[in-house]
Known about the structure:
Structural class: alpha/beta
Strand content: 25-35%
Amino acid sequence: MRNWRTLLGNERGVALVLSLMMLLALTGLLLAFLSVSALEPQISRNVADTARARYLAEAGIEIGFNMLVTTGDAQQMFTGALTSANASVPWAALVSNGTLSGVTTGGTSAETAFAGTYNVVVRNDYLASDQPLTGVNPVTTGETFAVDANKTVIMRATGTFNGATKTIEVVVRRAELPPFPGAVNLPGEQTDTLINDTTFDIDGRDYGCSSSCDTAGNWAPTANPMKYGIATTEGIQANKAPTTYEQNIENAVSPFASKLADIKGKNETAPAGPFTTGLNTIQGLDPTSAEALSGAKMAAYLDKVRNYAGTTILQSTQACPMQLTGTGTPTSTPTLTNGCTGASGVNQALDLGSRTNPKLVYFKGDMDTSSAFTGLTMNSGIKGAGVLIIEDGDLKQLGNFTWDGVVIVTGSYVGAGFRNGSSTLIRGAFVANETQAGEASGFFEFLMDDNTTFSVRSSKQNLDLVQVMRGSTTITNWREL
């Protein structure tokens, strides 16, 4: 028998053991590499599928937004989108299993590849816990799961691709128009009005058309509630005390006794009765009433549209004042110029919208304490639809102008002048809002010159048209769930 020292020193067979150990280790590494090589494509596919699902969710948000833009009840709330909502299922479907298709590589337009689905739902912001998300307290606005009262809803879109899903949630909010109690509205600190030898038609009855709305003859009074012919605010005009704002307007129109019949609308002495004409449809309203257009309401609305991400502010300066020049046949794409050259120069076509695609067109001028600055001059034939705003500068109308919607002239030391030879038709509402009480005498917020044709007709149809345009609706608080 060998002694134990001899056995311990014997190294025979060690190579086999080491080889087996190395083979086992290498086998483990090989299996690990094989596992990783098989897993990495799956991880890559999952990442790609999740990205595609997110793109589908984004597409759903855009499609859902487009649907909400054109959704509104009689007050242009989003209630119409909530009809299928109930207490147990507050989310109402906008799109179910929507699909997007793309042309296959090398294929024709008829050969499309399936690209997943998206679902879009919407609910009202009726829960108290919604306030941190929307910034609006639903308790104070009277929200329910099926009735929108603050023009704010929450929308979700979920994209699904190859088993991967992604959900995006947003808040959709509509900028509420301020009330327009009259066909013509002069709610500002001054209501100086000048009417020369002109032909005018100021009508607070509600007008609408059933077809071919570009044809003037198709517009007729409806059964909807009427507005005042001219609405202003209660109180005394500071630089003409003790004359009130209302009396200031009435003093301007009273000399034209034969034309008072051309101011029509709600009767201030019998608001529920038939329409009247003349001085009784020129009314000063308590600025704190829901019906009145106050300076505060006007400022709040302008602040919303000014800060909307989609609003383009067209800057008109005293050195380079803006002008729109149309054509012999009124066009909705007149040429916008400012008389300057180089980097400051503007010479381009401007889209003023149509009834099927109304626009928000915003001109911002310079405050000029001399009241001499014209922020926008309009020449020749121009037409458009939506909201036209001229702030901190006068409007000078020299041509043939038709507008479906709202025209607002507002700011410091401003006025609207419809000058000699011009022709104006506004279906909706007109506003001239002077925000300064100290403007010098001799400048007018509302001026109709000699040989002028001027017509404003109240139209709920066109005010509704304005509120459902893209420029009045915004997406906020975008987040992924």
